[in-house]
Amino acid sequence: DADVTQTPRNRITKTGKRIMLECSQTKGHDRMYWYRQDPGLGLRLIYYSFDVKDINKGEISDGYSVSRQAQAKFSLSLESAIPNQTALYFCATSDTDRIGGYTFGSGTRLTVV
Amino acid sequence: SQQGEEDPQALSIQEGENATMNCSYKTSINNLQWYRQNSGRGLVHLILIRSNEREKHSGRLRVTLDTSKKSSSLLITASRAADTASYFCAPRGSTLGRLYFGRGTQLTVWP
Predict the structure, then answer these.
(1) Residues A47 and A34: beta-carbon distance below 8 Å
(2) pLDDT tens, residue by residue, B22-38
(3) Which of A42, A49, B11, B74 has a 20 to 30 Å separation from B38 between CA atoms?
């Protein structure tokens, strides 16, 4: 099994629908992150969580919300999807120390029509 | 800006050649990390170099860091077609716990 699992792998949804992307990890890491990637652009940070009771906005949090249900689970929701939220979404984890590398999931390709 | 900027944006070489990618950043760092992304897949952590290190090796990868110039380079020796991917640098600050990524260098290695 993958260390960081994202579901679904692909999703097509209609404008205005609510959608949830899920992320679970077996790394035992405290820190979890959601990024989006658009063609030709780098990854942009949406939200991050340093532990179960900690949620922080990233660069582009508008239109998104998150829930940290447990140490191992971090979900991203689009309350009312719009076409410019079409992107590749990645969940990542890191250990408590501030210097280590990130472990990424395989991504969710979301298309809003 | 806390993210790194990779240069060039695209690099195309033949198998067996060396590939060099550069990264510039603006803030003070604790370390700098390099990641690889195969098309449409998640990023994979390749190597981390600490601010007090100047060079680090891992297999065919060689990373250098010049903190006075706020720059790093990633050298892949004897490139293979399987090295085709996007490469991202991520400078990690001393106090921030999160990474910011630039647009990456798209490396294409032709057989």
Answers:
(1) yes
(2) 999 998 888 999 999 99
(3) A49
